[in-house]
């Protein structure tokens, strides 16, 4: 990251393009309740946070409520992780932080606030947090509870609605909430559990896995791109499209 920052600085781009790196939520030694969020001891994390603070870059975290539900389907409310909280006095799908009194209506908000609390404990209360990855698999192995199309559709479409509100988290209501859905495509050759191959909004051929709440022209555009890319035998469709999406993302970030 330091080398990249130096390279950007040589072109006076260090204030337009910010360097950061994504972290697993596992970098936290504690995340519940959110106010108890703390980083596991690490000399690398200390150096990374110092760099991010120096360059005014955000802390990026990959947060997946699916993993919490998969690990304890009987102990975690499905409504809570799918942004489907029912607000009733005795609702088990609402979580209250006993230390702060803050009420959490979905797990992703709680996970992000746990990261904010961990940053505050390290002396970085003003650092922005961005969810660099989040999503839900549309299929999984028999022991992967909740990995199916209805839940994936609910999670991602409700996430989009959550982001569209423009609201921050309960602990940081004025800070913008940014999140990126993982993933654009299913990765049919990826090793590991079946769920790892089914996070995509689209299949490798460009067809939608399910309706996720965005207008149909997007699906048409993706399908058109995949058809055009199929004429290049030295590049797979999925890699070509991932490159296009990455290029557009970087260009947009630079222009911003």
UniProtKB/TrEMBL annotation:
Pfam families: Glyco_hydro_17. InterPro entries: GH, Glyco_hydro_17, Glyco_hydro_17_plant. GO terms for biological process: carbohydrate metabolic process. Belongs to the glycosyl hydrolase 17 family. GO terms for molecular function: hydrolase activity, hydrolyzing O-glycosyl compounds. The chain crosses the membrane at residues 232-254. Keywords: Glycosidase, Hydrolase, Membrane, Transmembrane, Transmembrane helix. The keyword Cytoplasm does not apply. It comes from Ceratopteris richardii (Triangle waterfern). It comes from the Eukaryota. This is Uncharacterized protein.
